[in-house]
Amino acid sequence: MAVLRGNRQLLAQITAAADSGRVCHAYLLEGIPGSGRKTVAMHMACAFLCMADGGRPCGECLACRKVAKGIHPDVQVLLPEKDKKTISVDQVRQLREKAFVVPNEGRHRVTVIPDAQQMTVQAQNALLKLLEEPPSFSVFILTAQARSQLLETICSRLVCLETEKLPAEEVMAELKQRFAGKSEADLALAARLGEGSVGGASAFLQGGTASQLMKFCADFLRAAGEGTASLMKLAPDLLAMNKEKDDLSVRLKALRLAARDVLVAQVGASHMLLFENAQQALEAGRGLTKTQVGSIMEAVDVACSALNNSLNFRITVMNLLIRCQKTTQTQRKG
What we know:
- This protein has two domains: 8-162, 3-Layer(aba) Sandwich (Rossmann fold); 207-333, Zinc Finger, Delta Prime, domain 3 (Up-down Bundle), CATH 1.20.272.
- The chain is α/β, with parallel strands linked by helices and 334 residues long.
- It is built from 16 helices and five strands.
- The protein has helices spanning 8-20, 37-49, 62-69, 89-99, 121-132, 152-155, 168-178, 184-194, 198-206, 210-226, 228-232, 235-239, 245-266, 278-284, 290-308, 313-333; strands at residues 26-30, 75-77, 109-113, 138-144, 159-162.
- Helix content is 56%, strand content 7%.
- Helix 13 packs across helix 14 (278-284).
């Protein structure tokens, strides 16, 4: 199995449920990106099928080894079909047919649905029927960033668990192992930006160096402070990221934290996440009021959500710039 960092309390809960036999029929694992939701989900599948007498999953029995290799006949993972971005209602209907098949080897038949928000509304409603009257041996494990991404009717039938954030020093130690060639400054910035997530911190490192990220954020905030013409000059570079949507997503997450730093500095506090100090943040946000910075953060949130939901890339970028432009224009007139 993949190495699990942190989540000690959550893992203890899973072991207790598996050892006692008090396994619920459906779970939701929620947590920030990169917090190990899918890894924990597969750990749960392993625990619920483990053949050991206690301390499940043992990681050594035949069932554990099969789950780790992805070949256990009683585990299925539901993902979007090739070249698709959503899980269709037809896929869930097929899942429902398989769900009533008695397990081949284990005591449970486990279905894992990573990023369950990828299910269409119709697919979620089809799954709901299965969750309302599940086979006694079936266990469903869904993951999502937040339960709000799923229908309330679905969530009402799930036991909701949260992945835990890692201490900054643990994130830093892991990053040093994974990115031996990166500078200390890059690693430290990524650890701050990851906000307790090794996966999230790794994404920032893959999106460029610390200086590149800070330059992008500072340039965007300065352009917003200068007005429409400066903002729209950013459009070509942003649109050019269409083939690397993850890169833009990383930059927007950094931009939100940069705007947060500006807001923190504007109220006289000094705890920075992206900028090295409050003065650097104030310089980047020169010309922006606290209200404007808050509105920019909201615009970035909307853009990030659109990217996560695979909405049109060009429209997402232009809407971001237009929202920021309207915010600064309106408040200047006021």
